Amino acid sequence: MVNMTVKDVLLATGGILLCGDEDTVLTDVCVDSRKIKEGDLFIPLVGNNSDGHRYIESALKIGAATLTSQHKDIVISEKPYIKVDDVEKALQDIGLYIRNRYSMPVVGVTGSVGKTTTREMITAAIAVDRPCFHTEGNLNSQQGVPITLSRMTDEHEAAVIEMGISDPGQMKILSSMVKPDIAVVTMIGVAHMEMLKTKENIRREKLDIISSMSEDGILFLNGDDELLNEVKNDMPCKTMTFGMSEDCDFRAENIRFEGGYTVYEAVHGNLRETVKVKALGKHNVRNSLVGMAVALQLGIPFGKSAKAFESFTGLRQQILSKEGRYTVIDDTYNASPDSMKACIDVLCDINCKGKKYAVLGDMFELGDNSVEFHRQIGEYLRDKNVDVVYTIGENALNIKAALDECETKHAETKAFMDKSELSMYLLGVLEPEDVVIIKASNGMHLNEVVKILMN
Length: 455
Fold this sequence. Notes:
Shape: globular
Number of strands: 22
Helix content: 25-40%
Largest sheet: 9 strands, mixed
Number of helices: 16
């Protein structure tokens, strides 16, 4: 927060100052009292299992001011208490207030899969030419987006904001804060199917990213995604596609894997540029391609933005190896059926002299069709060049079952329920030239298995 005072918060939120000085300077917002810093405005969010109002007193021992929607019994303080009706809504009002200060181009990124990597690649493509602000970590939610917006500064000349939803109506709220000039939708998958029920509902909610887009804004859609491709001509704004299909406006051709890089030709009209991406997987071709497409809209030529990906390091998927030992591909941050299939493709594309192991765990938030979505992964594996498939978790048993039902399956399979047992078993079977990819929803905590294997 730059040049922000309690008075600005009152203007942004329509709140009432119960005590303290309206000229108090604020330097950041904080929703966790344990992480409060000097100059912070404390946001006491109310959740299903906790109420931040319980921690106001301890937060203000360090912080500068607080919001409150429970103000009847407050202790009169020299530090400002700002009364609001709804703390989360007030946080969003603050984010919008700061967003409105800036005329820099803002890119909004959403989708069921690949939001974070796409955000990072778009940022990298822009940053070769100008300072670019972007979402950090996983601050992409109803609470995370306004925190991100509150940290915009005059030092930047563009911004890339990741926008994630789980419930109906949330994207319209995010779009009203972000007000993107360029919007990117990566893919329509089945993440959050539990709340949104169908892929068509997910598509409709994701496309609400344009609900508060600027009048001359541009929407980029993944042209390889059937659900997005079929609505590309129905959107009420300029719409362009990216992908590997022949009719995509921005197209990737001649994709190959060379020396740890994914290499391809980026094509747009008469433009053609060879791109080297320090990442594996065809999904990262699309991610980097739309990064170049967005950068081009901001006047950054292909030849310049392409250089950003030769040393790109902003991946959640990490390739870990030590001399004389096996290679581990750590993809444990999260999982959905689409990202699970993408990680299997990465494993298949790798050239190795040893065996290829896939360690796959439960995927969460898939609703009533969870069994079927897990089975689809087993079916997908049937004709892949993967030597060994180990599953962990109750839901992942369905991956093994679907794979085992195939009489011509190639892979050896085994199921585990305990991370320690799985880790010890892997340590006993992995050879120096083997490659193992580990993938599951974050709640499975398979990062603990990665740590054991690498230590």
